[in-house]
Amino acid sequence: LGVFGAYGKPNFAPGVGKVDLNTLNTGVTVKELRIPKPVEKTELDIWHFSMQYSDNDAQHIHDVSVAFAQGADIITGTEGGPGSGNLTEALRTQAKTHGYWFHIPSKRQTDCWIAVKKTLSPNKPKVGYRKVLTSAKSIGDPHPYSSRGIVWVKFDSPKIGKVAVASVHLLTKGRYKGQSQKDNPKCPIDHYT
Question: How confident is the model at residue 39 (pLDDT cuts 50, 70, 90)?
Fold first, then answer.
């Protein structure tokens, strides 16, 4: 166990170094003093950007440029759907410029999107979308919301293993309990919380 000190107890142990074990309580061993090897940790920067669909084209380009320039590993966001002007195209352009895989469901079925840095996922992620709520317009509802659902990506990262990320844009306080019965009796959504 090393060089012995006074009273026959070691004062040096491999992996521990020079220690005063002469004052240890009965039953304490050198093995219990060993410091375990640190576990390697990986940190991911995951950011969410809630964009503004009604901004003008120049503001969209500016905001998206700033968002992607931050360099997060994974970025999720909203407002990329129908009615957002050039926002979806600005997102695609900046994702490509900054080295991201980009996913927004085809035909702008919803307004959520996800971007994954190519250094985190060298291969294109598997992507998908599951619709949960149809758009207001499709059911004759006068409220301005697009279809809602879960946008997801999954990939294998050599850095951290299997990763899955989902994004959803919830409707919040868009309608109060009972309001749908007054302004659109056919709407299946009574209220949002």
Answer: low
Q: Hey, what amino acid is at 77?
A: G
User: What's the pTM value of the predicted model, to 2 decimals?
Assistant: 0.67
Helix (H) or strand (E) holding 180: helix 179-183
Among 87, 91, 89, 88, which Cα is nearest to 75's?
91
Which residue in the block uniquely carries the two structure tokens 């093995």? Answer: 31
Report long-range pairs for 161-166 (Cβ below 8 Å, ≥24 apart).
163/120, 163/121, 165/46, 165/74, 165/76, 165/114, 165/116
Sequential DSSP letters for 67-118: HHHT--SEEEEE--STT-TTHHHHHHHHHHHTTEEEE--GGG-SS-EEEEET
Amino acid at 143: H
Q: Quick: pLDDT tens for 59-113.
A: 999 999 999 999 999 999 988 877 788 888 999 999 999 999 999 988 767 788 9
For residue 63, the surrounding DSSP H or E stretch is helix 57-69
Name the token pair of 165. Answer: 């990320």
Q: How far is it, in rounded angstroms, from Cα 132 to Cα 142?
A: 19
Distance CA 132, CA 21 (A): 64
Highest mean pLDDT among 38-42, 97-101, 158-162, 180-184: 97-101
